[in-house]
TrEMBL record:
Entry's Gene Ontology molecular function annotations: magnesium ion binding; phosphopentomutase activity
Organism field: Streptomyces colonosanans
Cofactor(s) it depends on: Mg(2+)
Protein family per UniProt: Belongs to the phosphohexose mutase family.
InterPro entries assigned: A-D-PHexomutase_a/b/a-I, A-D-PHexomutase_a/b/a-I/II/III, A-D-PHexomutase_a/b/a-II, A-D-PHexomutase_a/b/a-III, A-D-PHexomutase_C, A-D-PHexomutase_C_sf, A-D-PHexomutase_CS, Alpha-D-phosphohexomutase_SF
Protein name, UniProt field: Phosphomannomutase
Organism ancestry: Bacteria, Bacillati, Actinomycetota, Actinomycetes, Kitasatosporales
Highest taxon, organism lineage: Bacteria
Keywords: Isomerase, Magnesium, Metal-binding, Phosphoprotein
Length: 550
Protein backbone atom coordinates (compact mmCIF):
# COMPACT_ATOMS: atom_id res chain seq x y z
CA UNK A 1 0.00 0.00 0.00
CA UNK A 2 2.83 2.40 0.86
CA UNK A 3 4.54 1.68 -2.45
CA UNK A 4 1.34 2.48 -4.33
CA UNK A 5 0.91 5.71 -2.35
CA UNK A 6 4.47 6.80 -3.09
CA UNK A 7 4.00 5.98 -6.77
CA UNK A 8 0.87 8.13 -6.97
CA UNK A 9 2.60 10.98 -5.19
CA UNK A 10 5.57 10.80 -7.55
CA UNK A 11 3.28 10.78 -10.58
CA UNK A 12 1.54 13.89 -9.26
CA UNK A 13 4.89 15.51 -8.50
CA UNK A 14 6.11 14.93 -12.04
CA UNK A 15 3.27 17.07 -13.43
CA UNK A 16 3.04 19.76 -10.73
CA UNK A 17 3.64 23.17 -12.40
CA UNK A 18 4.24 25.00 -9.11
CA UNK A 19 7.75 25.05 -7.63
CA UNK A 20 6.39 25.68 -4.13
CA UNK A 21 4.09 22.67 -4.00
CA UNK A 22 6.67 20.52 -5.82
CA UNK A 23 9.15 21.21 -3.04
CA UNK A 24 6.51 20.53 -0.40
CA UNK A 25 5.47 17.21 -1.93
CA UNK A 26 9.05 16.10 -2.59
CA UNK A 27 9.80 16.72 1.08
CA UNK A 28 6.89 14.50 2.15
CA UNK A 29 8.01 11.74 -0.21
CA UNK A 30 11.64 11.92 0.92
CA UNK A 31 10.55 11.84 4.56
CA UNK A 32 8.30 8.84 3.94
CA UNK A 33 5.44 10.65 5.65
CA UNK A 34 2.79 8.12 4.73
CA UNK A 35 0.17 9.58 7.07
CA UNK A 36 0.31 13.01 5.46
CA UNK A 37 0.58 11.58 1.96
CA UNK A 38 -2.44 9.38 2.59
CA UNK A 39 -4.42 12.44 3.69
CA UNK A 40 -3.49 14.29 0.51
CA UNK A 41 -4.04 11.37 -1.86
CA UNK A 42 -7.12 9.78 -0.26
CA UNK A 43 -9.31 11.15 -3.06
CA UNK A 44 -9.84 14.44 -4.85
CA UNK A 45 -11.45 17.69 -3.78
CA UNK A 46 -15.08 17.52 -4.85
CA UNK A 47 -17.34 20.25 -6.17
CA UNK A 48 -19.49 21.40 -3.26
CA UNK A 49 -21.26 24.73 -2.85
CA UNK A 50 -20.58 26.35 -6.23
CA UNK A 51 -17.18 24.79 -6.77
CA UNK A 52 -14.10 23.81 -4.78
CA UNK A 53 -12.75 24.91 -1.44
CA UNK A 54 -9.94 23.53 0.67
CA UNK A 55 -6.57 23.97 2.32
CA UNK A 56 -3.65 25.11 0.18
CA UNK A 57 -0.98 22.49 -0.40
CA UNK A 58 0.26 19.75 -2.71
CA UNK A 59 -1.88 16.79 -3.77
CA UNK A 60 -5.40 16.16 -5.11
CA UNK A 61 -7.04 16.76 -1.71
CA UNK A 62 -5.60 20.27 -1.46
CA UNK A 63 -6.07 23.51 -3.36
CA UNK A 64 -3.15 24.03 -5.74
CA UNK A 65 -2.39 24.89 -9.36
CA UNK A 66 -2.73 21.27 -10.53
CA UNK A 67 -6.21 20.96 -9.03
CA UNK A 68 -7.24 24.34 -10.43
CA UNK A 69 -5.96 23.53 -13.93
CA UNK A 70 -8.00 20.32 -13.88
CA UNK A 71 -11.07 22.17 -12.62
CA UNK A 72 -10.72 24.80 -15.34
CA UNK A 73 -10.32 22.14 -18.00
CA UNK A 74 -13.41 20.36 -16.72
CA UNK A 75 -15.39 23.59 -16.84
CA UNK A 76 -14.16 24.29 -20.37
CA UNK A 77 -15.15 20.80 -21.51
CA UNK A 78 -18.58 21.25 -19.92
CA UNK A 79 -19.11 24.58 -21.71
CA UNK A 80 -18.07 23.06 -25.03
CA UNK A 81 -20.51 20.19 -24.48
CA UNK A 82 -23.25 22.86 -24.19
CA UNK A 83 -22.24 24.43 -27.52
CA UNK A 84 -20.65 27.39 -25.76
CA UNK A 85 -17.10 26.62 -26.81
CA UNK A 86 -16.50 30.07 -28.30
CA UNK A 87 -18.03 31.98 -25.40
CA UNK A 88 -16.49 34.39 -22.91
CA UNK A 89 -15.43 33.29 -19.40
CA UNK A 90 -14.81 36.09 -16.90
CA UNK A 91 -12.40 35.39 -14.06
CA UNK A 92 -12.13 37.27 -10.78
CA UNK A 93 -10.01 36.69 -7.71
CA UNK A 94 -9.47 37.88 -4.17
CA UNK A 95 -6.20 38.68 -2.39
CA UNK A 96 -5.57 35.29 -0.78
CA UNK A 97 -2.40 33.30 -1.23
CA UNK A 98 -2.25 31.84 -4.79
CA UNK A 99 -5.49 33.53 -5.93
CA UNK A 100 -3.82 35.47 -8.75
CA UNK A 101 -1.96 32.32 -9.88
CA UNK A 102 -5.17 30.29 -9.95
CA UNK A 103 -6.94 33.03 -11.91
CA UNK A 104 -4.17 33.18 -14.54
CA UNK A 105 -4.13 29.39 -14.83
CA UNK A 106 -7.87 29.46 -15.45
CA UNK A 107 -7.50 32.11 -18.15
CA UNK A 108 -4.76 30.05 -19.79
CA UNK A 109 -6.82 26.84 -19.79
CA UNK A 110 -9.90 28.60 -21.18
CA UNK A 111 -7.83 30.19 -23.94
CA UNK A 112 -6.20 26.85 -24.75
CA UNK A 113 -9.63 25.25 -25.02
CA UNK A 114 -10.77 27.83 -27.59
CA UNK A 115 -12.91 29.94 -25.29
CA UNK A 116 -12.38 33.64 -24.74
CA UNK A 117 -11.11 34.55 -21.28
CA UNK A 118 -11.06 37.88 -19.47
CA UNK A 119 -9.45 38.58 -16.10
CA UNK A 120 -10.75 41.31 -13.82
CA UNK A 121 -8.06 43.99 -13.49
CA UNK A 122 -7.03 43.20 -9.88
CA UNK A 123 -8.39 41.57 -6.72
CA UNK A 124 -12.02 42.72 -6.42
CA UNK A 125 -15.17 41.74 -4.50
CA UNK A 126 -16.96 38.60 -5.63
CA UNK A 127 -20.16 40.56 -6.49
CA UNK A 128 -18.20 42.51 -9.12
CA UNK A 129 -17.46 39.21 -10.85
CA UNK A 130 -21.09 38.10 -10.56
CA UNK A 131 -22.15 41.42 -12.09
CA UNK A 132 -19.53 41.24 -14.87
CA UNK A 133 -20.84 37.90 -16.16
CA UNK A 134 -24.22 39.36 -17.12
CA UNK A 135 -22.84 42.77 -18.01
CA UNK A 136 -20.38 41.30 -20.53
CA UNK A 137 -22.63 38.51 -21.81
CA UNK A 138 -20.28 35.76 -20.62
CA UNK A 139 -21.18 32.06 -20.72
CA UNK A 140 -19.56 31.45 -17.34
CA UNK A 141 -17.54 33.07 -14.58
CA UNK A 142 -14.99 31.93 -12.04
CA UNK A 143 -14.14 33.64 -8.76
CA UNK A 144 -11.02 32.43 -6.97
CA UNK A 145 -11.85 32.93 -3.28
CA UNK A 146 -12.33 31.10 -0.02
CA UNK A 147 -14.57 33.89 1.26
CA UNK A 148 -14.32 33.93 5.07
CA UNK A 149 -12.41 30.66 5.52
CA UNK A 150 -9.11 30.50 7.47
CA UNK A 151 -5.95 31.93 5.85
CA UNK A 152 -4.64 28.52 4.80
CA UNK A 153 -7.66 27.93 2.52
CA UNK A 154 -8.58 28.95 -1.00
CA UNK A 155 -11.44 28.13 -3.32
CA UNK A 156 -12.87 28.11 -6.80
CA UNK A 157 -16.40 29.41 -7.25
CA UNK A 158 -18.15 28.80 -10.58
CA UNK A 159 -21.04 30.74 -12.15
CA UNK A 160 -22.97 30.08 -15.32
CA UNK A 161 -24.05 32.63 -17.89
CA UNK A 162 -27.16 33.74 -16.01
CA UNK A 163 -24.86 35.14 -13.34
CA UNK A 164 -25.87 32.56 -10.73
CA UNK A 165 -23.67 29.98 -9.04
CA UNK A 166 -23.68 26.47 -10.50
CA UNK A 167 -26.25 24.03 -9.18
CA UNK A 168 -27.22 20.42 -9.95
CA UNK A 169 -26.83 18.86 -12.43
CA UNK A 170 -24.15 21.23 -13.77
CA UNK A 171 -21.86 20.62 -10.79
CA UNK A 172 -21.94 16.85 -11.31
CA UNK A 173 -21.41 17.24 -15.06
CA UNK A 174 -18.37 19.46 -14.51
CA UNK A 175 -17.04 17.01 -11.92
CA UNK A 176 -17.42 14.18 -14.45
CA UNK A 177 -15.43 16.16 -17.01
CA UNK A 178 -12.70 16.73 -14.42
CA UNK A 179 -12.62 13.02 -13.56
CA UNK A 180 -12.27 12.16 -17.25
CA UNK A 181 -8.98 14.05 -17.51
CA UNK A 182 -5.87 11.93 -17.58
CA UNK A 183 -2.75 14.09 -17.43
CA UNK A 184 -2.03 17.79 -17.13
CA UNK A 185 0.15 17.58 -20.22
CA UNK A 186 -3.01 16.90 -22.25
CA UNK A 187 -4.42 20.31 -21.27
CA UNK A 188 -3.27 23.16 -23.57
CA UNK A 189 -2.07 26.12 -21.50
CA UNK A 190 -0.78 29.01 -23.62
CA UNK A 191 1.18 31.84 -22.01
CA UNK A 192 -1.06 34.55 -23.49
CA UNK A 193 -4.20 35.18 -25.51
CA UNK A 194 -6.63 36.30 -22.84
CA UNK A 195 -7.76 39.81 -21.98
CA UNK A 196 -7.19 41.72 -18.77
CA UNK A 197 -10.13 44.06 -18.32
CA UNK A 198 -9.78 47.72 -17.41
CA UNK A 199 -11.81 49.56 -14.79
CA UNK A 200 -14.82 50.02 -17.06
CA UNK A 201 -16.47 46.88 -15.68
CA UNK A 202 -15.97 48.16 -12.12
CA UNK A 203 -17.32 51.54 -13.15
CA UNK A 204 -20.40 49.83 -14.58
CA UNK A 205 -20.89 47.90 -11.33
CA UNK A 206 -20.64 51.11 -9.31
CA UNK A 207 -23.11 52.83 -11.65
CA UNK A 208 -25.49 49.93 -11.08
CA UNK A 209 -25.36 50.47 -7.31
CA UNK A 210 -27.42 53.63 -7.91
CA UNK A 211 -30.42 51.34 -8.48
CA UNK A 212 -30.28 50.15 -4.87
CA UNK A 213 -31.16 53.49 -3.28
CA UNK A 214 -34.36 55.51 -3.54
CA UNK A 215 -33.94 58.84 -5.37
CA UNK A 216 -33.68 61.66 -2.87
CA UNK A 217 -33.46 59.39 0.17
CA UNK A 218 -31.56 60.55 3.28
CA UNK A 219 -27.82 59.78 3.14
CA UNK A 220 -26.65 60.95 6.57
CA UNK A 221 -25.66 57.75 8.39
CA UNK A 222 -22.11 57.83 9.74
CA UNK A 223 -20.34 54.49 9.67
CA UNK A 224 -17.24 52.72 10.87
CA UNK A 225 -16.13 50.18 8.26
CA UNK A 226 -13.83 47.17 8.28
CA UNK A 227 -12.81 45.20 5.21
CA UNK A 228 -11.55 42.33 7.45
CA UNK A 229 -8.20 42.29 5.57
CA UNK A 230 -10.11 41.64 2.34
CA UNK A 231 -10.81 43.37 -0.97
CA UNK A 232 -13.93 45.39 -0.10
CA UNK A 233 -12.52 48.75 1.00
CA UNK A 234 -11.95 50.62 -2.26
CA UNK A 235 -15.20 49.49 -3.86
CA UNK A 236 -17.31 50.23 -0.78
CA UNK A 237 -15.73 53.65 -0.32
CA UNK A 238 -16.37 54.45 -3.98
CA UNK A 239 -19.99 53.31 -3.72
CA UNK A 240 -20.60 55.35 -0.56
CA UNK A 241 -18.97 58.44 -2.08
CA UNK A 242 -21.04 58.05 -5.23
CA UNK A 243 -24.23 57.80 -3.17
CA UNK A 244 -23.39 60.87 -1.09
CA UNK A 245 -22.98 59.21 2.31
CA UNK A 246 -20.41 60.54 4.79
CA UNK A 247 -17.07 58.85 4.20
CA UNK A 248 -16.87 55.75 6.43
CA UNK A 249 -14.24 55.76 9.17
CA UNK A 250 -11.91 52.85 8.46
CA UNK A 251 -10.52 50.29 10.88
CA UNK A 252 -6.92 50.88 9.78
CA UNK A 253 -5.51 47.56 11.02
CA UNK A 254 -7.94 45.66 8.77
CA UNK A 255 -8.35 48.07 5.85
CA UNK A 256 -5.85 46.66 3.35
CA UNK A 257 -5.80 43.17 1.81
CA UNK A 258 -3.61 40.75 3.76
CA UNK A 259 -3.81 37.01 3.00
CA UNK A 260 -2.53 36.16 6.48
CA UNK A 261 -5.44 37.95 8.23
CA UNK A 262 -3.15 38.87 11.16
CA UNK A 263 -5.71 40.46 13.50
CA UNK A 264 -8.37 37.72 13.46
CA UNK A 265 -8.43 33.99 14.20
CA UNK A 266 -11.03 33.54 11.45
CA UNK A 267 -11.76 36.37 8.97
CA UNK A 268 -15.51 36.09 9.46
CA UNK A 269 -17.46 38.91 11.16
CA UNK A 270 -19.58 36.27 12.92
CA UNK A 271 -16.59 34.72 14.70
CA UNK A 272 -15.82 35.78 18.30
CA UNK A 273 -13.31 38.63 18.40
CA UNK A 274 -13.40 39.42 14.69
CA UNK A 275 -15.25 42.71 15.27
CA UNK A 276 -13.28 43.85 18.34
CA UNK A 277 -11.18 46.41 16.46
CA UNK A 278 -14.28 47.79 14.71
CA UNK A 279 -16.04 48.17 18.05
CA UNK A 280 -13.00 49.94 19.50
CA UNK A 281 -13.05 52.40 16.58
CA UNK A 282 -16.81 52.90 17.08
CA UNK A 283 -16.27 53.75 20.75
CA UNK A 284 -13.79 56.40 19.62
CA UNK A 285 -15.93 57.96 16.89
CA UNK A 286 -19.58 57.27 17.91
CA UNK A 287 -21.00 56.50 14.44
CA UNK A 288 -24.58 55.51 13.65
CA UNK A 289 -23.59 51.98 12.74
CA UNK A 290 -20.65 49.67 12.10
CA UNK A 291 -20.42 47.83 8.78
CA UNK A 292 -18.10 44.93 7.99
CA UNK A 293 -17.52 42.92 4.86
CA UNK A 294 -15.98 39.48 4.82
CA UNK A 295 -12.72 39.16 2.82
CA UNK A 296 -14.37 38.82 -0.62
CA UNK A 297 -17.07 41.36 0.30
CA UNK A 298 -20.08 39.29 -0.66
CA UNK A 299 -21.31 39.31 2.95
CA UNK A 300 -22.25 42.31 5.06
CA UNK A 301 -22.26 42.49 8.86
CA UNK A 302 -23.93 45.31 10.80
CA UNK A 303 -23.45 46.40 14.39
CA UNK A 304 -25.38 49.02 16.34
CA UNK A 305 -25.02 50.83 19.63
CA UNK A 306 -27.01 49.06 22.32
CA UNK A 307 -26.97 51.14 25.49
CA UNK A 308 -23.37 52.11 26.15
CA UNK A 309 -21.72 49.51 23.93
CA UNK A 310 -21.98 47.90 20.51
CA UNK A 311 -23.44 44.61 19.38
CA UNK A 312 -23.54 42.70 16.13
CA UNK A 313 -26.96 42.26 14.62
CA UNK A 314 -27.68 38.69 13.65
CA UNK A 315 -27.98 37.99 9.96
CA UNK A 316 -31.67 37.31 10.46
CA UNK A 317 -32.14 40.71 12.07
CA UNK A 318 -30.46 42.50 9.16
CA UNK A 319 -32.46 40.34 6.75
CA UNK A 320 -35.71 41.45 8.36
CA UNK A 321 -34.65 45.10 8.51
CA UNK A 322 -33.77 45.21 4.82
CA UNK A 323 -37.04 43.49 3.94
CA UNK A 324 -39.07 45.95 6.00
CA UNK A 325 -37.21 48.84 4.37
CA UNK A 326 -37.91 47.55 0.88
CA UNK A 327 -41.56 46.98 1.72
CA UNK A 328 -41.73 50.54 3.06
CA UNK A 329 -40.31 51.77 -0.25
CA UNK A 330 -43.03 49.91 -2.15
CA UNK A 331 -40.92 47.05 -3.52
CA UNK A 332 -42.75 44.44 -5.60
CA UNK A 333 -41.69 40.92 -6.46
CA UNK A 334 -40.85 37.74 -4.59
CA UNK A 335 -39.06 37.74 -1.23
CA UNK A 336 -37.00 34.59 -0.70
CA UNK A 337 -34.71 33.05 1.88
CA UNK A 338 -33.04 29.75 2.70
CA UNK A 339 -34.76 27.29 4.99
CA UNK A 340 -32.23 27.95 7.77
CA UNK A 341 -33.17 31.64 7.94
CA UNK A 342 -35.82 33.23 10.14
CA UNK A 343 -39.49 32.70 9.36
CA UNK A 344 -40.00 36.40 10.06
CA UNK A 345 -39.35 37.21 6.39
CA UNK A 346 -42.38 35.14 5.42
CA UNK A 347 -44.57 37.08 7.83
CA UNK A 348 -43.31 40.43 6.53
CA UNK A 349 -43.96 39.36 2.94
CA UNK A 350 -47.41 37.98 3.77
CA UNK A 351 -48.44 41.20 5.55
CA UNK A 352 -47.29 43.19 2.50
CA UNK A 353 -49.13 40.88 0.08
CA UNK A 354 -45.87 39.81 -1.59
CA UNK A 355 -44.93 36.34 -2.88
CA UNK A 356 -42.54 34.43 -0.61
CA UNK A 357 -40.39 31.33 -1.16
CA UNK A 358 -38.06 29.15 0.88
CA UNK A 359 -35.10 27.47 -0.81
CA UNK A 360 -32.25 25.19 0.12
CA UNK A 361 -29.20 26.82 1.67
CA UNK A 362 -27.08 28.89 -0.67
CA UNK A 363 -27.55 31.67 -3.17
CA UNK A 364 -27.34 29.23 -6.06
CA UNK A 365 -30.93 28.44 -5.03
CA UNK A 366 -32.10 31.84 -3.79
CA UNK A 367 -30.91 33.73 -6.88
CA UNK A 368 -32.93 31.48 -9.18
CA UNK A 369 -36.31 32.15 -7.54
CA UNK A 370 -38.67 33.38 -10.23
CA UNK A 371 -39.47 37.08 -9.96
CA UNK A 372 -36.97 37.56 -7.13
CA UNK A 373 -36.91 41.06 -5.65
CA UNK A 374 -35.03 40.37 -2.43
CA UNK A 375 -33.30 37.32 -1.02
CA UNK A 376 -31.20 36.65 2.05
CA UNK A 377 -29.81 33.98 4.29
CA UNK A 378 -28.78 34.17 7.89
CA UNK A 379 -25.03 33.86 7.20
CA UNK A 380 -24.87 37.62 6.45
CA UNK A 381 -25.76 37.22 2.77
CA UNK A 382 -28.19 39.65 1.08
CA UNK A 383 -29.25 40.03 -2.53
CA UNK A 384 -30.86 43.47 -2.77
CA UNK A 385 -30.48 44.06 -6.53
CA UNK A 386 -31.05 40.72 -8.30
CA UNK A 387 -31.19 42.37 -11.72
CA UNK A 388 -27.64 43.60 -11.19
CA UNK A 389 -26.05 40.82 -9.12
CA UNK A 390 -27.70 37.41 -8.85
CA UNK A 391 -25.77 36.54 -5.73
CA UNK A 392 -25.19 37.93 -2.28
CA UNK A 393 -23.54 41.34 -2.40
CA UNK A 394 -21.98 42.95 0.66
CA UNK A 395 -21.48 46.32 -1.05
CA UNK A 396 -25.07 47.00 -2.11
CA UNK A 397 -26.38 45.54 1.16
CA UNK A 398 -24.19 48.03 3.02
CA UNK A 399 -25.62 50.88 0.96
CA UNK A 400 -29.19 49.80 1.66
CA UNK A 401 -28.69 49.39 5.42
CA UNK A 402 -27.01 52.82 5.52
CA UNK A 403 -30.02 54.29 3.71
CA UNK A 404 -32.35 52.66 6.22
CA UNK A 405 -30.31 53.97 9.15
CA UNK A 406 -30.40 57.45 7.58
CA UNK A 407 -34.17 57.25 7.05
CA UNK A 408 -34.79 56.21 10.66
CA UNK A 409 -32.41 58.88 11.92
CA UNK A 410 -34.57 61.50 10.19
CA UNK A 411 -37.68 60.32 12.04
CA UNK A 412 -38.62 61.52 15.52
CA UNK A 413 -37.86 58.94 18.18
CA UNK A 414 -35.74 57.94 21.15
CA UNK A 415 -32.28 57.92 19.59
CA UNK A 416 -29.40 59.94 21.07
CA UNK A 417 -30.03 62.73 18.55
CA UNK A 418 -33.79 62.43 18.70
CA UNK A 419 -34.07 60.06 15.74
CA UNK A 420 -34.98 56.40 15.53
CA UNK A 421 -32.53 53.52 15.17
CA UNK A 422 -32.35 50.07 13.66
CA UNK A 423 -33.12 48.64 17.11
CA UNK A 424 -36.33 50.69 17.25
CA UNK A 425 -37.45 49.16 13.96
CA UNK A 426 -36.60 45.65 15.20
CA UNK A 427 -38.81 46.33 18.24
CA UNK A 428 -41.65 47.41 15.96
CA UNK A 429 -41.31 44.24 13.89
CA UNK A 430 -41.40 42.08 17.03
CA UNK A 431 -44.61 43.72 18.21
CA UNK A 432 -46.16 43.40 14.75
CA UNK A 433 -45.13 39.82 13.97
CA UNK A 434 -43.95 38.26 17.25
CA UNK A 435 -40.39 38.15 18.57
CA UNK A 436 -38.43 35.89 16.21
CA UNK A 437 -35.18 35.01 17.98
CA UNK A 438 -32.54 32.90 16.29
CA UNK A 439 -29.28 31.28 17.32
CA UNK A 440 -26.88 28.69 16.03
CA UNK A 441 -25.09 25.69 17.49
CA UNK A 442 -22.00 25.32 15.31
CA UNK A 443 -19.41 22.61 15.91
CA UNK A 444 -16.08 22.77 14.03
CA UNK A 445 -14.42 19.36 13.76
CA UNK A 446 -11.06 17.93 12.73
CA UNK A 447 -12.58 14.51 12.04
CA UNK A 448 -15.50 14.61 9.57
CA UNK A 449 -16.82 11.32 10.95
CA UNK A 450 -18.03 13.27 13.99
CA UNK A 451 -20.52 15.06 11.73
CA UNK A 452 -21.63 11.85 10.01
CA UNK A 453 -22.09 10.12 13.37
CA UNK A 454 -24.16 13.01 14.75
CA UNK A 455 -26.44 13.01 11.68
CA UNK A 456 -26.83 9.21 11.90
CA UNK A 457 -27.66 9.39 15.60
CA UNK A 458 -30.32 12.05 15.06
CA UNK A 459 -31.85 10.08 12.19
CA UNK A 460 -31.98 6.89 14.23
CA UNK A 461 -33.21 8.54 17.43
CA UNK A 462 -34.89 11.87 16.67
CA UNK A 463 -35.62 13.92 19.80
CA UNK A 464 -39.24 13.91 21.04
CA UNK A 465 -38.79 17.11 23.06
CA UNK A 466 -36.37 20.03 23.01
CA UNK A 467 -36.40 22.60 25.84
CA UNK A 468 -39.54 20.91 27.08
CA UNK A 469 -41.34 21.70 23.84
CA UNK A 470 -42.81 18.74 21.95
CA UNK A 471 -41.39 18.02 18.51
CA UNK A 472 -44.53 18.16 16.40
CA UNK A 473 -42.92 17.12 13.13
CA UNK A 474 -39.55 15.59 12.20
CA UNK A 475 -38.36 15.74 8.58
CA UNK A 476 -35.38 14.08 6.96
CA UNK A 477 -34.60 16.59 4.23
CA UNK A 478 -32.43 13.97 2.55
CA UNK A 479 -35.68 12.56 1.17
CA UNK A 480 -36.80 15.93 -0.21
CA UNK A 481 -40.15 17.61 0.37
CA UNK A 482 -42.97 18.87 -1.84
CA UNK A 483 -41.15 22.21 -2.11
CA UNK A 484 -37.48 21.24 -1.77
CA UNK A 485 -35.11 18.83 -3.54
CA UNK A 486 -33.18 16.39 -1.32
CA UNK A 487 -30.38 17.77 0.86
CA UNK A 488 -28.44 16.37 3.79
CA UNK A 489 -30.37 17.91 6.66
CA UNK A 490 -32.96 17.39 9.37
CA UNK A 491 -35.81 19.72 10.32
CA UNK A 492 -37.75 19.65 13.57
CA UNK A 493 -40.91 21.70 14.01
CA UNK A 494 -41.76 22.41 17.64
CA UNK A 495 -44.58 24.29 19.32
CA UNK A 496 -43.24 27.82 18.89
CA UNK A 497 -39.80 26.85 17.63
CA UNK A 498 -37.89 25.33 14.72
CA UNK A 499 -34.56 23.51 14.43
CA UNK A 500 -32.57 22.56 11.32
CA UNK A 501 -29.40 20.47 11.45
CA UNK A 502 -27.04 20.17 8.48
CA UNK A 503 -23.36 19.74 7.63
CA UNK A 504 -21.76 22.93 6.31
CA UNK A 505 -21.18 22.99 2.56
CA UNK A 506 -17.95 25.00 2.83
CA UNK A 507 -16.32 24.23 6.19
CA UNK A 508 -15.77 21.20 8.46
CA UNK A 509 -18.71 22.14 10.67
CA UNK A 510 -22.01 20.72 11.84
CA UNK A 511 -24.50 23.58 11.90
CA UNK A 512 -27.74 23.64 13.87
CA UNK A 513 -30.07 26.58 13.21
CA UNK A 514 -32.50 27.44 15.98
CA UNK A 515 -35.50 29.75 16.00
CA UNK A 516 -38.12 30.50 18.65
CA UNK A 517 -41.16 32.74 18.21
CA UNK A 518 -42.55 34.45 21.32
CA UNK A 519 -45.83 36.39 21.00
CA UNK A 520 -45.61 40.08 21.90
CA UNK A 521 -48.63 42.33 22.36
CA UNK A 522 -46.88 45.64 23.12
CA UNK A 523 -43.47 47.25 23.40
CA UNK A 524 -43.74 46.88 27.17
CA UNK A 525 -43.73 43.08 26.75
CA UNK A 526 -40.43 43.00 24.86
CA UNK A 527 -38.00 42.60 27.82
CA UNK A 528 -39.89 39.58 29.14
CA UNK A 529 -40.24 38.12 25.66
CA UNK A 530 -36.49 38.47 25.02
CA UNK A 531 -35.69 36.81 28.35
CA UNK A 532 -38.02 33.92 27.50
CA UNK A 533 -36.49 33.57 24.01
CA UNK A 534 -32.95 33.54 25.42
CA UNK A 535 -33.92 30.88 27.93
CA UNK A 536 -35.57 28.70 25.28
CA UNK A 537 -32.68 28.97 22.82
CA UNK A 538 -30.12 28.03 25.48
CA UNK A 539 -32.23 25.06 26.54
CA UNK A 540 -32.74 23.88 22.94
CA UNK A 541 -28.96 24.10 22.40
CA UNK A 542 -28.26 21.92 25.43
CA UNK A 543 -30.87 19.33 24.55
CA UNK A 544 -29.93 19.19 20.88
CA UNK A 545 -26.23 18.83 21.69
CA UNK A 546 -27.04 15.90 23.96
CA UNK A 547 -29.30 14.29 21.34
CA UNK A 548 -26.62 14.59 18.65
CA UNK A 549 -23.79 13.48 20.91
CA UNK A 550 -21.69 16.55 20.17
Amino acid sequence: MHDELIARAKAWLAEDPDAETREELAGLIDAGDHVELAARFSGTLQFGTAGLRGELGAGPMRMNRSVVIRAAAGLAAFLKSKNQGDGLVVIGYDARHKSADFARDTASVMTGAGLRAALLPRPLPTPVLAFAIRHLGAVAGVEVTASHNPPRDNGYKVYLGDGSQIMPPADAEIAAEIDALTTLSAIPRPDSGWDTLDDSVLDAYLARTDAVLAPGSPRTARTVYTAMHGVGKDVLLAAFARAGFPEPVLVPEQAEPDPDFPTVAFPNPEEPGAMDLAFAKARETDPDLVIANDPDADRCAVAVKNGEDWRMLRGDEVGALLAAHLVGRGARGTFAESIVSSSLLGRIAQKAGLPYEETLTGFKWIARVEGLRYGYEEALGYCVDPEGVRDKDGITAALLIAELASTLKAESGSGSAGGRTLLDLLDDLAVEHGLHATDQLSVRVEDLSVIANAMHRLREQPPAHLAGLPVIHSEDLGKGTDQLPPTDGLRYTLDGARVIVRPSGTEPKLKCYLEVVVPVSSHADLPAARARATELLASIKRDLSAAAGI
